[in-house]
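Dear support,

I submitted the protein below through the web form. The confirmation email said the job was done, but the results page showed an empty box. After a refresh the structure appeared. I'm attaching both so you can tell me whether what I see now is the final result or a partial one.
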Amino acid sequence: MKKLTMIMIAVLLIAMPASVFAGDGIWVGPTALYSTGMTFGELSTEGLEGYEFDASDFNYGVEARLDISIFQGSVTALYHADTIFGDILETNLNAGLYADLGIVGLGLSAGPKYIVLLEEGYEEAVEWGSNLKVAADLILGSTILSAYFSADIYDLETWAETADFESLYGRAGLSLLFQL
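What the results page shows now:
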């Protein structure tokens, strides 16, 4: 009996630290972002009720993440067709904190936002303010279904002084990520 107890304690001592890093790695997959904006307050109180969804109301792209312990870095690239600037590629580079709580993960990250005009003659990325991303993930082994809210912030330092989450204006999205 004493030997079994010691084995169980040894397994727990090994498994506990290993479980903290279970979600670490590189994740890549498709993403879709609803193109109609809303405030975070509207999303958290009303949800998406009253919105009629159509495939043309979404911007599609790819997301790549790197998770290391409680830190997360990500790149999201989204294609926007027929904007007032023509076709564009929106790229968000984020770094932040991530809590892997077993089957659920929660993340908060921020970083610069770049716009690339895809019309002829334009080849440089233009910094277009910052973005703040709040994500809730459903972790299913080597697959993550991520629901997120990506807010556009034109001056991150000024916003950080007030940190008014309710009035953040952004868009809701979904990603399906696969671990490499």
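Response: this is the final, complete result; the empty box was a page-load delay. The beta strands are 25-34, 38-39, 58-68, 71-83, 86-100, 104-117, 125-140, 143-153, 169-179.
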